[in-house]
Amino acid sequence: MQIFVVEESPLRAAKALCDKHVLSQIGETAEMLALAHLHNHEPVPPLARLKVRRGHVNHPCTRWVGLTLGNYQWAATLGVALLDEYAHRYNNEHAYTVDIYRMASSPPFQLIGAAMPETPHPLVVPENYRMAMPATQGASVVLSYRIYYHMKAARMPMRWTRRRKPKWFDYAGVSALHLDAHAHT
Predict the structure, then answer these.
(1) Domain residues for 132?
(2) Nearest CA to 70 among 116, 35, 105?
(3) Which residue has the higher pLDDT, 62 or 173?
(4) pLDDT at 132 over 50
(5) How many H helices and E strands in the chain?
(6) Last residue of some domain: 114, 142, 162?
(7) Which class for 106: exposed (0-12), middle (13-18), buried (19 or more C-beta within 10 A)?
(8) What percent of the chain has pLDDT over 90?
(9) Is the pTM of this model over 0.85?
(10) What is the DSSP letter of 91?
(11) Residue 34 sits in the same domain as residue 109
């Protein structure tokens, strides 16, 4: 269970993910949206295909999605953007399309009533990939996820079908920070 916050914008984040993560993040995002309803003591909207597993209900990313309306909307926007990416890359509709759109348009009532803004994303990466930056927490979360993402490329092939790799992926600064972080393991 993960949200790869490689960009502040969920629309740009979806485009920046490699093929494998576009696929996996659709399912994980759908599950986190569904679990947000349970987190707020509400039933999950009727779903067409998704089978909700409760094993990740206490994962930091799942808790974050269900914490505020702003968080839920960010995740829902990511889910819809991932579906668009899937359609763009594979010229096909994903099986969870109806479910994600239904949840995107039906946030938990408790969150609607409170109408709280987005909170900082949880940083769920190994300690040696966390970048502390004095400017804003958002910048350090995005940079930390980019470094972590770069590290994953050493373990798995990353492809971007019908997309270019994000510019930051090949940026020498990310590579240097990745090597520095990796040296501390």
Answers:
(1) 127-183
(2) 116
(3) 62
(4) yes
(5) 9, 0
(6) 114
(7) middle
(8) 59
(9) yes
(10) S
(11) yes
